[in-house]
# Entry
Amino acid sequence: MNILPLTIESLVAILLLLTILYCIRLNEQLRRLKDDGTSMQQTIAELITATESAERAIAGLKNTVREADETLGERLKAAERYSVEMRQNATAGAEVLNRLSRIAGARLTLAEAEEDKAAPPPDAKSIVAAAQAFAERTRARVKGLAA
# Structure
């Protein structure tokens, strides 16, 4: 009967040892979890900082877009005004050119009529001679290139 109390005390000692080992393991896990929590807090702080920076950048971009829209609108209006002015100037220029061409055409017609009266009609023989001379020069050039 002396063996039973010794067995029970040995069994309690083993259970206490297992409990101590389990507590050590649990303590290590809690320490890792706490470290992970600290790193998680740092990550969250970095994300908050990045979010604030992104919000400021977006606000700046909105302002830039608004300014660009205003500037572009002003430039488009100015371009439309210049386009209308250019069309009006082109139309006016075309009218002036038409008037000048009518005036010049009338004057040329008068000048041509006076020249026709003063200049004798060209001689047919001289025209034929000039054409033959031109043909001979062309033939000579072609022979020079072929050689």
Summary: The chain has one domain: 8-118. The radius of gyration is 54 Å.
